[in-house]
């Protein structure tokens, strides 16, 4: 079972950050929530804080991560957190493209399949 932690990063205008997977990776060109695999020796919050630093150059802390939704597909378990408090400006540090989506725009992005139920939870939270 692969555990992946991801975040719905929400800005002051109520938009959520989506990230487009770069060429050469599985699901290239599709959109997902920033995050990544939980590595051995890490808990989920630690993994997410590390991924946000590596991928986006932002800092947050466990108390700012609120569990929002999960989805299990095959051997993948996706855990989605919502985060409204973070330091720094999200910057694409790993070749990805970033977009801030309004709640009514989320489903106009070509989402990674496992993210669709999660995206519905984000839309409902923000609408
Ligand atoms: N970060 C993230 N990954 C997701 C989402 N939805 C989804 O199915 N995934 C999948 C894609 C990957 O198979 C896995 C996350 O792995 P990752 O981001 O750490 O690694 P990766 O596949 O980009 O890169 P690699 O290390 O496997 O080459 O979870 C999502 O919303 N965010």
TrEMBL record:
It catalyses: 8-oxo-dGTP + H2O = 8-oxo-dGMP + diphosphate + H(+); 8-oxo-GTP + H2O = 8-oxo-GMP + diphosphate + H(+). Gene3D superfamilies: Nucleoside Triphosphate Pyrophosphohydrolase. It holds the Pfam family NUDIX. The keyword Nucleotide-binding does not apply. Keywords: DNA damage, DNA repair, DNA replication, Hydrolase, Magnesium, Metal-binding, Mutator protein. Belongs to the Nudix hydrolase family. This is 8-oxo-dGTP diphosphatase. It comes from Parvularcula lutaonensis.
């Amino acid at each position: 079972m692969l555990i992946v932690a991801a975040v719905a990063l929400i800005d002051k205008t109520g938009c959520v950050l989506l990230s487009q997977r770069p060429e050469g990776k599985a699901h290239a060109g599709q959109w997902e929530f920033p995050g990544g695999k939980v590595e051995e020796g890490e808990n989920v919050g630690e993994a997410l804080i590390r991924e946000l630093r590596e991928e986006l150059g932002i800092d947050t802390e466990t108390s700012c991560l609120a569990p929002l939704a999960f989805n299990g597909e095959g051997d993948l378990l996706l855990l989605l957190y919502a985060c409204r408090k973070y330091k720094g400006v999200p910057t694409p540090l790993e070749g990805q493209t970033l977009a801030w989506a309004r709640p009514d725009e989320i489903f106009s992005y070509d989402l990674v399949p496992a993210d669709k139920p999660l995206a519905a939870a984000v839309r409902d939270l923000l609408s």
